[in-house]
Design brief:
The complex is a heterodimer of chains A (338) and B (286). Chain A is of the alpha/beta class. Chain A is built from 11 helices and 12 strands. In chain A, helix 4 crosses helix 5 and helix 7 runs parallel beside helix 8. Classes of the chains: A alpha/beta (338), B mainly alpha (286).
Chain lengths: 338, 286
């Protein structure tokens, strides 16, 4: 899949800036759309189809909740399939996480415990989704607001997810960077463990620190560390297209284009990411864990009475962050270059 | 009608003739699509692709003059020409840069003289004629035979519709009668004849292709209107598809309108040159 757009650098689409995207189409290798912005809004699809007649379109979403033990929401899958059928992106990315548990939406991505049960659950859901969707599904790593206890690292877990589900991977470099900063590991070492041969798309973004915690807010230019990770990935032979995600507090469009240009890094000769033998813990009771987590995030009593194996400060931070996400309304239209 | 040609009074004849010519022209206009139907057929991908090229779009839209205006816009955006009200200045000669053949022709023409405003068509472009031939072969413009049929039809319709008036005019002049109103009426109907029945510039497929290209590139018109800078190819395509009206208040074509407008005190002859979060919000976190 990634071979179609080798080392392409693109930008996340903003409907308010349609004319800018089209006028500057030659400066973009591709455009990525956030599918959830357009579900149930078929009146907005012709503009995307027009954009897709000029540039390769990629899609990613936030609402599939691939990691939910309770399975997928068939209504959401149907709406997503209709959108993808109309717009015809090269693939659709979704986060390897869950957002829904016990029939409730917690408002943002919750990382999965790195267990065999999680892998089985996500693989089952991914296969179910892939049957309905008209384009390949790829799995994206999330920036974790906390770490489930366990011996397996993020790269190994992503490898297990990809191999079990048969899906390609979307490597969000800023999420990897944020995890490295927040949990104290070396991002480049971790990147070297990623199965880069399965990576079909890269994301680059910038975030902000809130209370000492690096949040993937998509409101800043990618930091130098993300640039180094991109160069390292290219050096390891990863030629996947890279998309700049900048959701809010947008600068002038020409500045966005300059950031995209900076992401245009050639790749070394393609090589598979180094494999590694590891063993996942079996896990168990994923549905119960997810339901308890949702209760901890959504109910006034919070995490009281539940033992999720997480540190209290992690739960509090996640609770505050998810509440912020749920309350966030669409920001006003960013300004055009005109 | 023969009877009416000789006997009625002047005002009565004018009334009869008005009705006759009007109905005849309306019938001829309606009958043309029946007698000379458009046979351009389905649009091919090749025909649609041709209009991605600004100068083909311009030739289809407005002919050779329009293509030259496009070239002037592209040259202006690239810094070869400077267009301003009442003046066009050649800023630099063609360098090693890869210019389109039509742009080279226009720049050469602009460099060779020093008139203060542009006269489209001055280059007598060979490219435009080649483009017309290609557009005909793609079924977007009528073939030479179809154009000739259209011409014959127009003149035959003209004779049919205006003939009685012309006859009466000749007779009136011979008899020394006043003919001013008849001359005016004939003039009006002659213009109507040209407007309603002049040979078609585009086939039905050509109209459809142009409409689709305009819809696809509608953003260029919007961008021009907002004064957004366009690259040379897009600036030329905007003029090619939408004419000089494209974003007339904004970008380069707005200045071109002024450049193509002869100063009030100037003669219209000459030139040749100097003419020459998303909106979705706050990070999806992924």
């Amino acid at each position: 899949m990634a071979a179609e757009l080798p080392c392409s650098a693109g930008l996340l689409y903003h409907p308010c800036l349609e004319v800018d995207f089209l006028v500057h189409r030659r400066a973009l290798g591709h455009v990525s759309v956030l599918a959830d912005q357009f579900l149930g809004r078929p009146e907005a699809w012709p503009a995307l189809k027009r954009l897709g007649s000029f540039l390769p379109l990629l899609s990613h979403g936030v609402g599939l909740s691939l990691g939910s033990a309770e399975g997928l929401d068939p209504r959401y899958v149907g709406r997503l399939a209709g959108f993808l059928q109309a717009v015809r992106p090269a693939w659709h990315g979704e986060h390897a996480a869950f957002t829904r548990a016990g029939g409730r939406d917690v408002g943002h991505f919750v990382p999965l415990p790195r267990t065999a049960e999680s892998v089985r659950t996500l693989a089952r859901n991914a296969r179910d989704a892939a049957r309905e969707l008209p384009c390949p599904l790829v799995l994206e790593n999330v920036a974790a607001p906390f770490a489930w206890p366990g011996p397996v690292g993020p790269a190994d877990f992503q490898r297990a997810l990809a191999e079990s589900s048969g899906c390609g991977l979307l490597l969000d470099l800023h999420n990897l960077h944020a995890d490295a900063v927040n949990f104290g590991f070396d991002a480049e070492d971790e990147l070297a463990r990623w199965p880069l041969g399965r990576v079909v798309e890269l994301h680059a973004a910038g975030g902000v620190r809130r209370g000492g915690w690096l949040v993937d807010s998509h409101t800043r230019r990618p930091p130098e560390a993300v640039g180094r990770l991109l160069a390292a990935a290219r050096g390891l032979g990863c030629a996947a297209p890279v998309t700049l995600e900048w959701d809010a507090e947008l600068p002038e469009f020409r500045e966005l284009l300059a950031e995209v240009a900076a992401l245009r890094v050639p790749a070394a000769t393609a090589a598979e990411g180094a494999g590694r033998v590891f063993e996942l813990p079996a896990g168990g009771g994923l549905a119960d864990v997810q339901r308890d987590f949702a209760r901890a995030m959504l109910e006034p009593a919070g995490a009281a009475g539940t033992d999720l194996g997480l540190r209290p400060e992690d739960l509090l931070r996640a609770r505050a962050g998810f509440a912020r996400k749920r309350e966030k309304a669409s920001p006003p239209c960013p300004r055009s270059t005109s | 009608m023969i009877e009416l040609l000789h006997h009625p009074s002047g005002p009565a004849f004018l009334g009869y003739f008005f009705c006759w010519a009007f109905c005849a022209l309306v019938a001829a206009r309606a009958g043309r699509s029946f007698l000379l139907p458009d046979r351009s057929g389905e649009l091919t991908p090749e025909a649609l692709n041709a209009l991605e090229e600004p100068y083909f779009a311009a030739v289809l839209n407005g002919g050779e003059d329009e293509a030259e205006r496009c070239a002037m816009v592209a040259l202006e955006v690239r810094g070869y020409l400077e267009l301003a009200k009442d003046s066009v200045t050649v800023k630099r000669e063609a360098s090693g840069e890869d210019l389109h053949p039509l742009e080279k022709e226009v720049l050469a023409s602009a460099s060779s003289a020093g008139a203060p405003y542009l006269v489209p068509g001055a280059t007598k472009s060979g490219f435009a004629r080649a483009a017309e031939a290609k557009l005909r072969s793609l079924g977007l413009m009528p073939s030479a035979v179809q154009a000739a049929q259209d011409g014959v039809y127009m003149w035959a319709s003209g004779v049919f519709a205006l003939g009685p008036g012309v006859y009466r005019l000749a007779r009136g002049i011979m008899l020394g009668r006043p003919v001013l109103f008849l001359v005016l009426l004939l003039g009006v109907f002659f213009i109507a004849l040209l407007v309603a029945l002049s040979p078609r510039r585009r086939t039905g497929a050509g109209d459809r292709a142009l409409g689709m290209a305009r819809e696809r590139y509608a953003f260029l018109d919007k961008a021009q209107g907002r004064g957004m800078p366009l690259d040379p190819a897009d600036a030329a395509l905007a003029v090619g598809l939408f004419g000089l009206g494209a974003g007339a208040l904004g970008g380069p074509s707005g200045r071109l309108v002024a450049a193509f407008t002869p100063p009030a005190s100037s003669s219209s002859s000459g030139c040749g040159s100097s003419c020459g979060g998303g909106c979705g919000g706050g990070g999806c976190g992924g």
